[in-house]
Design a protein that fits this description.
By secondary structure, the protein is α+β, with helices and mostly antiparallel strands. The protein contains 5 helices and 5 strands; from the N terminus they run H-H-H-H-E-E-H-E-E-E. It is globular and about 65 Å long.
Length: 174
């Protein structure tokens, strides 16, 4: 039997960040397996909205503003993902939408096969944008979770004014 000192120096892939990513992967996987992807996404959406509210408050406080200006929303979305290990960037931005790309998911390989986890991005982006601009609709057009090489996220800033439905989830200021 090994002594305590030998156990403490074992080379194990076990540290807090990896443990928490594995925990979220297994929780979302269990939800997807038991109640389905759509319902699991709903549960994760609730958490995402709460996280989005907290992050929004932190940015407003740090920027010393009551609302984040439209000109800064894209930069805030990119910055928050950078801070948690994502590699988001702005593909394009205009008065109607912000298109973002992402080369690295903050959940890394733990997101593969777990599309419900993408609801964190949708809800955090949607909540922050809507709480500051009044409205947003987030469309996850490509995701690493579903096997794409990169993510593509469209954050619509204006309600759809056509008869054709637009994919994505709508968010409104509370």
């Amino acid at each position: 039997m090994s002594n305590v000192n030998e156990i403490q120096v074992l080379n194990l892939p076990l540290e807090r960040d990896l443990f928490l990513r594995n925990l979220i992967r297994h929780l979302s996987g269990t939800l997807q397996d038991v109640i389905g992807v759509e319902e699991a996404s709903g549960f994760i959406s609730i958490v995402g909205q709460q996280v989005g509210d907290e992050i929004n408050g932190e940015y407003r406080k740090a920027l010393n503003v009551t609302h984040i200006d439209k000109s800064l929303i894209g930069a805030v979305l990119v910055d928050l993902k950078r801070r948690i290990g994502g590699d988001f960037y702005i593909v394009s931005e205009d008065d109607e939408k912000i298109v973002l790309g992402n080369r690295q998911c903050p959940f890394e390989d733990k997101v593969l096969g777990r599309p419900a986890m993408c609801m964190m991005t949708s809800n955090v982006f949607g909540t922050i944008t809507a709480e500051n601009l009044g409205y947003s609709q987030v469309e996850l057009t490509e995701t690493i979770a579903n096997g794409a090489a990169q993510c593509r996220v469209v954050v619509h800033l204006q309600p759809n004014d056509t008869d054709a439905p637009r994919p994505g989830i709508e968010y409104y200021r509370v």
